[in-house]
Amino acid sequence: MKSTHSDTPQGFAFAVSAYFLWGFLPLYMKAMADISPVEVLAHRVLWSVPVAAAVLWMTARTQDLKSAFTTPKTLMMGVVTAALISVNWGVYIWAIFSGHALDAALGYYINPLFSVFLGAVLLSERLNPVKWVAIGLALVAVVILTIDAGRLPIVAIALTVTWGFYAYFKKSLPIGPNQGFLLEVLILTPPAMAFVFYLMTQGSGHFLNGNQVNTLLLLGCGVVTAVPLMLYANGAKLLRLSTIGMLQYIAPTMIFLIAVFVFREPFGQARMVAFPLIWLALVLYTSSLWREAQRARLP
Fold this sequence. Notes:
By secondary structure, the chain is mainly alpha-helical. It has one domain. The chain has helices at 9-30, 37-58, 62-69, 72-97, 101-122, 129-149, 154-170, 177-202, 212-236, 241-247, 250-261, 269-297. Helix 5 packs across helix 6 (129-149). The longest helix has 29 residues, at 269-297. The protein is globular, with a radius of gyration of 20 Å. The two termini are 24 Å apart.
């Protein structure tokens, strides 16, 4: 995603708003914990369509979307990004519902380091020693959690990998971020609609089943899904990459605090070691990113 050479107040407002909305999202999701994660995922897709379509219509950019559906390469890339974001959403919803919000926070903390690793492996980007140390510390943290639990932290790894590859492939979409998001949810709409219709015919769905609270919460999934994504996409275009790099820790920090102090998830000894290692890695990574940005602005 293209960034500017200087930060703008609009960009800062967009990005901070997006990260705060993402940070509070666990509270919204937890309110639907009696609904199956797959049903919530389907409604996230369905009700994101009118929100994203309204934004695109107001900005008069619908023509780009029409060309995307008639260009096979763009459409196939949209299928890839749609699949990745749907898995990411599904894992996240399940994590919140099943008491693994701390694992979700861990995944989003690790994500920027994984993106740097992807750049080195897939794009042959050169990393300085500080970034390699940061990646190494994140790997050590994952190993500690794996040894303690006797298994890989699947939720954290799944969120990291799906979002990392989503961001990587998203760059290949030759349309704007808002158009790309609407393309993705439109691609996901047929299976989502089929699943919701199936639940309604079976009488097991939670939408329009007499519980107005659940119906309203499911309807609201479109707003809480589409709005922060589009705020982020537009904010990223108006901020330097280094600024986005620092702001992105707002959401996982809020998820972490909510998991520990609101959801009361256990924070054992392994996590007491692993999370500080991740935080140290992010300090090293962010300081390196900041120095690179400073050098780039020198005449």
